[in-house]
Amino acid sequence: MFKTLNDKLDLAFKHLKGQTRITDLNISNVIKDIRKALIDADVNFNIVKEFTDKVKTEAIGTKVIQAVRPDQLMVKIVQDELVNLLGGSVQQFIVEEKFSIILLAGLQGTGKTTFAGKLAYYLKNNKNKKTLLVACDVYRPAAVEQLSILAQQIGTNVYSNKESNNPVQIALEGIDFAKANHFDTVIIDTAGRLSIDTAMMDEILQIKKATKPNHILYVLDSMMGQDALSVAKSFHDVTNFSGVVLTKIDSDARGGVALSVKYTLQTPIYFSSTGEKVDNLEVFYPDRIAQRILGMGDIATFVEKAQTQFDDAQAEKLEKKLRKNQFDLQDFLEQTQMIQKMGSLKDMLSYIPGVSKAVKDVDIKDDAFKPMQALIQSMTPAERKNPDIIDMSRKNRIIKGSGRSMQEINQLLKQFEEMKKMIQKMGKNPMAGLSRLGGQFKR
Questions:
Q1: Which of 10, 47, 209, 396 stands the most exposed, by the fewest C-beta atoms within 10 Å?
Q2: DSSP-assigned letters across all residues of 329-392
């Protein structure tokens, strides 16, 4: 999402390369380029001016120490101000212990229904909540079906009433159904329109008054640009929503909405939503988003995503094999399959510091692992366990069975051998570094 903004900020910081200190003169072009980059990203002009004024004041007043270059210091100052602009510290979404009603609001096409499913999945897996989805969009024919498909993926239920076109009645019926069937959380998916109108606002207000929700979350499309904020303000005036969710944050949007929403609405941003899968939902961490904007990666999110795919038993088994230098091609196959479950391969690589900038212009397909997986799956168990036995005759059989080439199998075996050597160099405790890394970023 922030690729263009990141590129332009990089160019801005280059004005300070080779400088020994920050001065009014050499910082003027930096501030000018930062201002232009943010305006081009659809950040409100008043926010841009206040932001760059703060950056300039902080930069001029900061002493440059010998170990830090002026351009590096500038990056740190901009990062700190971005974190403040995005809301400072993380705002955790707290759900009531006994019974909670969550009302979703927003325009049509913002991803409300998809988010309803993602939130139910998140609450089930992270808060141990039994959640009922209530379908109150009586205008869009596919809304109930979409919610039902999501509920099936999650393993929960949907309440709908096809005989009624009264969303207030359906919402109240859904709450009664939830209480009678021992659900502890209700998520109400409401209708949207293509633009603000009186009927939609009156409807969401009537649902709010009737259901008395514990939380009202406004679902905001990150691709909408500055118009999104004026629409959000209209919703806030009517519903006084308690928090914001940013959807489509993995798109090619300019990113200005993410930078403007907290400043403009003064409400917490709880989640950012990416992709279509039910597990594509992230808690909104201002510091991590700031790191992504500046191309620094986001190792904390990478570790968390990895932890959702690797259970303790798998990790322990892998660690034992690594200790004994018994890591084989079968293990390698399983690890690549786990990585694929974490999401887009390019997105995963972009989380890693130092790699994020290297891959931003590289076309990395999500099926990049398929050739090596096909080769390994064409091997016998003995060949996977001990690749040294793979001679020319075996290679010919493997490439024939996998549909790959001799060059690809030679490359796979070479890369695997290099990986084993690297694992050996990690010593007696090859998983310790990863363990410390995971613990370091636990919140």
A1: 209
A2: HHHHHHHHHHHHHTS-HHHHHHTSTTTHHHHTTS---TTTTHHHHHHHHTS-HHHHH-GGG--H
| Of 143, 136, 144, 113, residue with least CA distance to 203 | 136
For the chain, 443 residues long, the average pLDDT of each consecutive 10-residue run is 77 83 86 91 89 90 70 87 90 90 93 95 94 94 91 94 94 97 96 84 95 96 80 91 88 71 90 85 88 69 61 65 75 78 63 53 67 93 93 95 94 83 55 39 36
Quick one: pLDDT at residue 207? Answer: 97
Q: What is the dihedral of CA 291, 244, 44, 62, to 10 degrees?
A: -40
Please name the fold of domain 302-440.
434 Repressor (Amino-terminal Domain) (1.10.260)
Does residue 388 contact residue 329 with C-beta atoms inside 8 Å? no
Q: Is 159 helix (H, G, I), strand (E, B) or coil?
A: strand
Between helices 70-85 and 286-293, what is the axis angle to 10°? 140
d(CA 11, CA 230): 31
C-alpha–C-alpha distance, residues 131 and 154, integer Å: 10
**pLDDT, position 431:** 43
Architecture (CATH level 2) of domain 100-296:
3-Layer(aba) Sandwich (3.40)
pLDDT reported for residue 253: 56
Residues of the chain with CATH 1.10.260.30: 302-440
Q: How far apart are CA 379 and CA 388, in angstroms?
A: 12
Q: Residue with structure tokens 């212009």?
A: 361
Query: CATH 1.20.120.140 in the chain, residues?
Result: 3-85
SS (H, E, C) 5-57: HHHHHHHHHHHHCCCCCCCHHHHHHHHHHHHHHHHHCCCCHHHHHHHHHHHHH
pLDDT of residue 155: 93
* Range 3-85: architecture per CATH: Up-down Bundle (1.20)
